[in-house]
Amino acid sequence: MNPKVIVADDHRLVAEGIVRILGKAYDVVATPIDGRAFVDAVEQFHPDLVLVDISLPLLNGLDACRRVKTSFPGMKIIILTMHSEQHFVDEAFRVGVEGYLLKSSVGDELLIAVREVLKGSAYVSPGVTRGLVSQALGASTEARRPPRPVPARGAELPTEGSLATGDRRETE
Q: pLDDT tens across 123-138, in order?
């Protein structure tokens, strides 16, 4: 039996395109067009994975995912959106989603994301990973400063206890 999937997007053309990309490998059981209908569809169908747009009417995608995760903590969720801004990515992962995919991605990337998330991995579009890396490094000036070069062999390095006195020795 194929994994059951819900595709929640308020743009019918987008939802239909996603359904076609998923093809025969997945059973799309619902294509709700608003956040409330999405939550209802999850409760009705208990899918293996959901693809959700952030910008849904009546209840935005992130709030809808928050509700779903409260009732179904193990639900696998991929956000499918045009929003690459870091605050959207941060909030999505705070909600507990397993994937974040930009709508500018190609169809093969969607299939990869779905496979990875169903296997238990996380997936993030390459278009948003740069922001995640920057955040991991910190936004401070320190994090953006180039690292100090490692001294070459033979350069003077401080010895144990010499830091307090200022003494240095030559390395081999």
A: 999 877 665 555 555 6
Query: How many structural domains comprise the chain?
Result: 1
Each residue's pLDDT tens digit, 65-102: 999 999 999 999 999 999 888 889 999 999 999 999 99
DSSP 76: E
CATH classification of the domain holding 83? 3.40.50.2300
What's the pTM? 0.76
- CA gap 47, 27 in Å, rounded: 9
Provide the pLDDT confidence category of residue 10 given band limits of 50, 70 and 90.
very high
The DSSP annotation for 19-64 comes to HHHHGGGSEEEE--SSHHHHHHHHHHH--SEEEE-S--SSS-HHHH
Residue 109 within a domain: yes
Within 13 Å and on the Cβ side, how many CA atoms surround 87?
0
In angstroms, the CA 117 to CA 77 distance is 8
Q: Specify if 149 maps to a domain.
A: no
Identify whether the C-beta of residue 31 lies closer than 8 Å to the C-beta of residue 19: yes
Beta bridge partners of 156: 170
- In this structure, is residue 80 part of a structural domain? yes
Q: Which domain holds residue 132?
A: 4-137
